[in-house]
Amino acid sequence: MSEPATSIEALGLRRADTGGGLVIDGKLISQSVLAETAAGAADLLRTSGARPGLAVVLVGEDPASQVYVKSKGKAAESCGFHSVQHTMAAHTSQADVLALVERLNADPAIHGILVQLPLPKHIDATKVIETISPAKDVDGFHPVNAGLLAIGETDRAFVPCTPAGSMILLERAAKALGVDLAGRDAVVVGRSNIVGKPMAQLLLGRNCTVTIAHSRTRDLAGVVGRADIVVAAVGRPEMIKGQWIKPGALVIDVGINRVPGEGVDAKGNPRTRLVGDVDYAIAQPRAGAITPVPGGVGPMTIAMLMANTLASARRLAP
């Protein structure tokens, strides 16, 4: 069923020290995606003179958003992109944000536009997203891109970065285990427009039989327990119990939840730790392959943003 360890490692997976299933190394796989993207950007610049351009818009001073934006800027620069950041005060009017987006739509040096969410409450995020040109919507949130994905036009759509990255991790795990995804029962726990729904569409595209479950699903344990593939994207710490996981199942944990840790830090503040939506300690020995948190899906999100920006630059290049 499994391939030699060297093949597994080359695919970005490893065997857990505690035994059980394989661990999917999202950090390692994301580095390969970024390296491929950087090579593609260099080739595009050489052949057409076009340098992929990514513009990130940050409104307000949300600390988490500032960290995310900084990470995206670093990744863009590492790929050789033209990277710009527009930081706007929290009190900036919606009209001013929309005007900036329109200017970026018209800028030929910009191929990808990302408006960091969440936005201040007085700004309609839906209106902002719908103002971004679908051709530069590298987050994949515009209704046009959502519609293209829904009808299976993945070559024309920009797929949201988290599910796109999750699909790569899943495909790597399936290959390492010699598993054909076609015909497998897949359960996506979570129904958001950002992760759950597009993930279900991608799985359908791979000929899986897909169920979308959520917090109100009856007998969630039974639904998850029958699945060959589990994608957890519900945003609740360790909601998916390890004993629910079918032996040998492929598990992609999208959740990133901060919970109390042990002791205090150097400043005397209570420590915290990150956990996923799946009870990893119990699920890992049962799963055929599973993503850890942190170090699983998270790094892939930024990598796929860079890949989408390169794809846009290729489409828009003269």
Per-chain topology:
Elements: H1 5-10, E1 13-15, E2 22-24, H2 26-48, E3 53-59, H3 63-78, E4 82-88, H4 94-106, E5 112-115, H5 125-131, H6 143-150, H7 161-177, E6 185-189, H8 196-205, E7 209-213, H9 220-225, E8 229-232, E9 250-253, E10 257-264, E11 270-275, H10 280-286, E12 289-290, H11 298-316
Parallel strand pairs: 2-12, 3-4, 3-5, 6-7, 6-8, 8-9, 9-12
Antiparallel strand pairs: 1-2, 10-11
Helix pairs in contact: 2-11, 3-11, 7-8, 7-11
Describe the 3D structure.
This protein folds into two domains: 89 residues, Leucine Dehydrogenase, chain A, domain 1 (Rossmann fold, 3-Layer(aba) Sandwich), CATH 3.40.50.10860; 139 residues, 3-Layer(aba) Sandwich (Rossmann fold), CATH 3.40.50.720. α3 crosses α11, α7 packs across α8 and α7 crosses α11. Helices cover 42% and strands 18% of the residues. The chain is an alpha/beta fold. The chain is globular and about 50 Å long. The strands form three sheets. A seven-stranded mixed β-sheet has the order 1-2-12-9-8-6-7, with helices on both faces. It has a three-stranded parallel β-sheet with strand order 4-3-5, with helices on both faces. It has a two-stranded antiparallel ribbon with strand order 10-11. The N terminus is likely disordered.
